[in-house]
Design brief:
alpha/beta, Na+/H+ antiporter like fold, Rossmann fold, Alpha-Beta Plaits, 3 domains, six-stranded parallel beta sheet, four-stranded antiparallel beta sheet, 28 helices, about 65% helix, about 5% strand, globular
Length: about 650
Amino acid sequence: MHSGLELTLLLLGCAVLGVVAFRMLHLPPMLGYLAVGVLIGPHALALADDSPATHALAEFGVVFLMFSIGLEFSLAQLKAMRRIVFGLGMAQVVLTIVATMLFGQLISMLTPQLNISWQAALALGGALAMSSTAIVVKMITERLELESEHGRRIIGILLFQDLAVVPLLILIPSLARNPEDLPATLGLAALKAAAVLALLLFFGQKLMRRWFTVVAKRRSQELFMLNLLLVTLGGAWITEQAGLSLALGAFVAGMLISETQYKHQVEEDIKPFRDVLLGLFFITIGMLLDLQMVLANWWLVLALLVLPVLLKFALIAGLAKLFGSSDGVSMRTGLALAQAGEFGFVLLNLASDSKLIDPFLMQLVLASMVLSMLVAPFMIANMDKIVMKVAANEWMMQSLALTQLATRTMKTQKHVIIAGFGRSGQSLATLLSEEKLPWYALDLDPERVQEARAAGANVSYGDASRREALIAAGVNRASALVITFADTRLALKLLHLVHELAPNLPVIVRSHDDSDLDLLKAAGATEVVPEALESSLMLASHALVMLGVPLRRVVHRVQAARDERYAALRGYFHGSGDITDDPEHTYVRLHSVTLSDGAAAVGKRLAELRLDEVGAEVTTLRRSGEKLEAGPETVLHVGDVVVLRGEGDAVSRAEGRLL
């Protein structure tokens, strides 16, 4: 039996060695923690035992993980992605649980000695429904696919899985009670959860904002950290006293803080505690694995690895297809989410503690889940190759998209390629258009591209960091490339491609600050513009000077924009990813409205609509592909595209008047 200090030193030392080894292999640290747990556990080297002290450390890891999930909880994000989250995500979790319960009943019928109750099957289904947020998000971020179609669906499903953990944390312990008392137990648990949540959410939100303001005004980092730990563990204690899980209270505490202006500071401060304690949790999970039993029943482990992964892949891919995705997008979504996840271990551990799952079955499922997570990085890394070989029309669809892009830019010479069409990209495009300089933009947000194209913008859906997209955009004929997103890693990849394809092409790069300036310059950037209050104007001025516009005219134009308080640049087309963290903050936006037959505004003059009364204005009017000068007396026709500018609510009300 180790002392508390000896146990902590042993776990930390082994964790460091394990993470270093797995980092060298370019694998997620979580797998290193699991491997360390297997090796030092009682079933292998027996360096550490399954003690209450180890369990306490592991439980704190889950508490801080749920707190972090609560911090990321955003009503605005849920609203924007509601079809994916509550449609595709909910269907995936529910159907996985149902399929597991049916499979459990089938196994019980075929092999009576391995009787799986419906309660155990439900708990197993909940565990298997989870996917690894840590592995998947890390991999698709490195592959620069967060804003792709399959990336958005993956994030939406993961978001619902995280939310589904909360009711499952309440449900699984209740399943271990007497079946006759189950309805009453569940009802009581739901009532307690509702009462505690109502109390925390009703009184907690205002109290949390005011209390954090009081603490922050003391200007003490130590006090802020102490308060943060108090809130996290205090929320967990409240729900535990109500007979619920510690993790539920931590989730609610995180959710309350997510609505304050201190969210980002809290995220940074809590991260070291979360990562270290979560690592210890995964070590304890690895310690549960009995290697001898697994090796003796390797064929069962292999079956439990292959069958759930295939089932989950087929289910998610089929649902994504049902929700309107192409074959390629559906298969990529399924491949990325087919593995087990962190919360699967949390739920499996909870089911084991509640004596719902037979220890033998627990070992088999645990081993298969660990193996599926080991396989996951290789599946995600090679999913493009898999999809191209299996989906017959995927290659054709990608080729068609690139062909369409190449067709649009084929006749364009000496144009500016804008990589990214967010706020900065649209500001740059505005000034280039006023100088009659041709440009073409690539962006990965399909909603933004659709909105901007409807308003006549030269933008296409495409990944500028891919060789084929750059060639199709005419990189060899372009006069400059402007990288408008402040992502150094992605910019370096793009600079490497440009150096290969068009080594003499001037490239202007936007960065967060000047810390990466030398690195970007060394990679071939002609000019690096550190992000600041006037980043958009500086980016545009460098581009105009490089394209031969007289310096005096550039200075005059930039100064005029300052004098007008950025009036010409205010507002930009929003995509689904443009969600503000602060619900009380409003942004000016642009929005394209196409007038269909039967629209209320057809046949009316703009003056009659009195859009200024709702706080919106018409910036552009396009008719039959041509831009018109819109005035108060302009009569609107069927098919007109009206571009509105204003805050979100104002634009929505103006759209209502038009339609």
